[in-house]
Amino acid sequence: MKQWIVFIAGFMSFLAIVLTILILILGNKPFSDVEKGAIAQVENENLLTEINRAYVYSSDQKSVTVIGTDSEGKLKAVFVPMSGQELSETALDDKITAQEARGIALKDMQVKEVLNTKLGMEKDTAVWEVVFLTENDKLNYVYITAADGSIWKRILNL
């Protein structure tokens, strides 16, 4: 009888692990497909020669941010809207970095964990979205303009 209990417990554990992995893979697939399509579009239009990273940025208008270098070796970000609108791009050499944006956003905050920092387009302005948890486990969003490092918007203590 003990062998059956051990077998059933082992099988259920294995099944739970397999289902978790399957859900994670299938849940991330739409994002991966959109990112791959945006990268292909940027490459087809020869906007970037080397791509460092790409990710989905959600705001009023969802887009994919593709960051890389152009043919002149300058760091750029290309914003590919999901709704089929025109691409927009910005040079990042003269903009603040993700680390600088994090420093501005987290100044005078009691931060437990930084969840992510993403560059996106908000009302024709490139902004860094810094998402973090405070010591009391409240979710916070701080948006920093990439051009000058000013705070564009704060959504605190969710």
UniProtKB/TrEMBL annotation:
Residue stretches making up the Cell wall elongation regulator TseB-like domain: 38-81
Gene3D superfamilies listed in its UniProt record: 3.10.450.40
TM ranges: 6-26
Keywords: Membrane, Transmembrane, Transmembrane helix
Name used for this protein in its record: Cell wall elongation regulator TseB-like domain-containing protein
Organism: Planococcus salinarum
Lineage of the species this protein comes from: Bacteria, Bacillati, Bacillota, Bacilli, Bacillales
